[in-house]
Amino acid sequence: MTALDTLQHRCRDVATLKPAVHRLCEKFGTIARLDVLTAMHYGEKQAICFIRLESAEKEQALIESLGVGRFGGEIVFVVELDSGAAPDAQDLHAHWSAAPDALAGPGISATGDGACWSRSAH
To answer: Which of 5, 30, 58, 87 could bond to 43 as cystine, CB 3.0-4.6 Å?
Structure first.
C-alpha cells in the first residue's frame, strides 16, 4: 500500500482533499501549485490532481514514492472521492468538470461532446 492509497475514498470533495494532499506531500517539500479537476466516471466521483513542487528533485522523489507519473510536466494522480450515496442514473456515464473554485481564475478550458475541461492555478 502506498501513501496515495490512504487518500482513496477518504475525502468527499476538493475542500477536504486539498489539505490531505498537502499533508501527503509535505515530507517531499512545499507544493508550489496544486490544481484539481473533479469527475464522475461511471458512477465514481474522482479528483484528478496536478502538482508542482519547489524543485525537480523533490518532484522525482514524490513520483517514485507514490508510483505516479507526469502529464504536461506536472505530477498527476487520480483520487477516488467518497461519494457517500448511490449514483444517479445520469452519473453512470463519464463526464469531467472543474472544481467550482477552478472556474474563477485564468486557465485552460475547452468543451466538446458534452465534456468540460477546465484548469486554473490555486
So the answer is: 87
pTM of the predicted model as reported, rounded to 2 decimal places: 0.68
Q: What span, in angstroms and rounded, lies between the C-alpha atoms of 93 and 81?
A: 17
pLDDT tens by residue, 27-39: 999 999 999 999 9
Q: Is the dihedral of CA 75, 80, 83, 88 positive or negative?
A: positive
How far apart are the C-alpha atoms of 61 and 69, rounded to whole Å? 11
Q: Total domain count for the chain?
A: 1
Domain of residue 42, residue span:
3-120
| Secondary structure class of 1 (helix, strand, coil) | coil
Could you report the per-residue pLDDT of 72-102, keeping only the tens digit for each? Answer: 999 999 999 987 644 444 443 444 454 444 4
